[in-house]
Structures are given as C-alpha cells and as structure tokens.
Specification:
The chain is of the alpha/beta class and 336 residues long. It has a domain of 231 residues: TIM Barrel (Alpha-Beta Barrel). Helix content is 37%, strand content 13%. Helix 3 runs parallel beside helix 4 and helix 4 packs across helix 5. Keywords: NADP, Oxidoreductase.
C-alpha cells in the first residue's frame, strides 16, 4: 500500500481508502461488512471513510464495531455531516451550528472514538451562513473532536470561500470529496485547479463508476442479479446515468487496454484516478472481502501516457466533463 499526503497538511493516508457507503448497515450483513474491514486492514488500508447519513447512522456503528481494538493512532477515520439523520426533524439536517455540534457527538459515539481525523461537510448548505458553518467546524477542531476539515461536492467557488474562512479561523481545510472516474471528470476544469492552488487534495468517490467500469454490465442485457444496477434500495438510482448502451459499449472496449496493463478493469479504473496528482486517495467499497484484495492491487500502479491516451480515445464523447454539473447535481435548498 502506498500513502499520500492529504492536501498541504502533514497527514498521510492510504491511497486506497475504504468507504462504506451503500453497503454497511444496508446492503451487506454486519458480519460480512466486518470481514471486509478486516480484509482492508490486512491489505494495508489505514484510512476509512463513512458518513452519518449512510444507512441513517448504522454504517458508522458498523465501522466503529469493526475497528474496535485497533490501535487508534494507526488509523485515519473520516466522517461527514449535512444530510438528514435520525427522525429527520427540522434541525436534523444541514450545516447549522446546532446540527454540526450534535452530529459530531453522535458520530464519535457510533465510531467508538474520541476524535475523527477528518470531518467533512457532505454538501454545501445554501441556507446557513458559511461563517456559521466554518466557526462551528473551528470549534470542533479546537475541542479536539476533529483534526482537519474537508468538504464534499462543493464547487470551486464554494471551496475558495470555505478555505478563506478556514484560514481566518486558523484551521486546516485540506480535502474535497467529489465523484471522479474515467467517465465522470467534471472536477478537472475548475475544482482541481482551485484545489491545487489552495493546497487541497481530492478524495474521490465512485472511481469505478459504481461498478460500470468493471465491465460486468453488457449492452442489451439485464444487469446481473445482486449487482448495484439491480438494487432497488438506492443503488440502481445512483448508477442509472451510466446505464445506456453507448457508455456500456465503450466500457467493454476498455478490456484490451486493461489486459495490456496487466490489470482487471476495476483495477485499471482505480489506478486511472490515482494518476491525477491532485488525488490523494480513491474510495473503494466492498460487498465481499475478496473485492478488497483485488482493489488494493491498483496502489502504486503507473499508467504510461500512451495508455492514458488510449483510454481517452476509447471512451470518446461519453465522458462527462462539464464543470457546471457539480452545481447542477447539488441540492438547491436544504433537504428536510
């Protein structure tokens, strides 16, 4: 396993980071989820990412139980706040001081830890003053409940404003967590250049495009049973933007490229995002322990420029690059 610095901080994280979105506490039984976490540890992954909203707080509980007994100083544990949790009351969502302060305490209890290494704003809150949000984050850092601050799916303009306030408050905003893959490159135009300027790294989610880049979805055929595209608990909705014959046909044409690199298609996809120097880590999940072992083989892989160019040629115009899609896919108001 290789490790990279997160932003311009001194914190090192594993470039393959284990994330438990859409699995722990919902799609995967707790004993299997624990086996996946143990497999991650066995393969050298030290960084674990979750959020209070995943399975309505259950994912944090599963992760906390799975990591119990590990040396805390050897782990980097990340979580997030924004989306509705609990019964979804009027203050159970957003980035108000009330919700942030209550959420960090709940997360720490469920994760069975005194602090998280990174506390992230899961989305931008258009209805709360940014000053209120960043002051609450600063107080959490000063209380020792979080070491660093990050954001997720913020636009370049929002990142710049948040970073400026963090600097005024003398705390470190060091990360951005956007969707990024061979098929979804919307951060390259604005978010990445802004982040490089400000000393912020990307921790990217969905590097395998929620399974599409494994090649298991074949154009003209129904998705395999048990796959995310066949899941009616939320997985199918998230993956549907890629589930068209044009995209799936192009993805099938990547197999010879992966074979030439000596990688599976999933490993190629994870290695591809790690070629971006602004990416500190690729978030990968698993529904089976053996998937973890396969994904970590992407760590340390260098893809030659000629191979990267071939990937671009194969995928062509199915790649999404419009920077405006970050804002377009964000909540327009606080979700109740």
């Amino acid at each position: 396993m290789r490790f990279r610095y997160l932003g311009n901080s001194g914190l090192k994280i594993s470039e393959i980071t284990y994330g438990n979105w859409l699995t722990h506490g919902s799609q995967v039984e707790n004993d299997i989820a624990t086996q996946c976490v143990r497999a991650a540890l066995d393969h050298g992954i030290s960084t674990f990412d979750t959020a209070d909203v995943y399975a309505n707080t259950k994912a944090e509980s599963v992760l906390g139980e799975a990591l119990k007994g590990e040396r805390r100083e050897s782990l980097e544990i990340f979580t997030k706040v924004y989306w509705p949790t609990g019964p979804g009351g009027k203050n159970d969502t957003g980035l108000s001081r009330k919700h942030i302060m209550e959420s960090i305490n709940g997360s720490l209890t469920r994760l069975q830890t005194d602090y998280v290494d990174l506390y992230q704003a899961h989305r931008f809150d258009t209805e709360t003053p940014l000053e209120e949000t960043m002051t609450a984050f600063a107080d959490i850092v000063r209380q020792g409940k979080a070491l660093y601050i990050g954001v997720s799916e913020w636009t370049a303009e929002q990142i710049r404003a948040g970073h400026a306030l963090a600097k005024e408050l003398n705390i470190q905003l060091i990360s951005s967590q956007p969707q990024y893959s061979m098929l979804w490159r919307v951060i390259e135009g604005e978010v990445v250049p802004t982040s490089e300027e400000l000393g912020i790294s990307q921790i990217v989610w969905s590097p395998i495009a929620q399974g599409v880049l494994t090649g298991k979805y074949v154009p003209g055929q129904a998705p395999p049973q048990g796959s995310r595209a066949a899941d009616d608990k939320g997985g199918a909705d998230m993956i549907k933007r890629f589930m068209n014959d044009d995209v799936l046909t192009r993805v099938q044409a990547l197999k010879p490229v992966a074979d030439e690199a000596g990688l599976t298609m999933a490993q190629l996809a994870v290695a591809w995002v790690l070629q971006n120097r602004n990416v500190a880590a690729a978030l990968v999940g698993a529904s089976r322990p053996e998937q973890v072992g396969e994904n970590v083989k992407a760590s340390g892989v260098t893809l030659e420029p000629e191979l990267m160019a071939r990937i671009d040629e194969v995928l062509g115009d199915v790649v999404q690059r419009d920077p405006a899609l970050t804002a377009a896919n964000a909540p327009k108001g606080r979700v109740a």
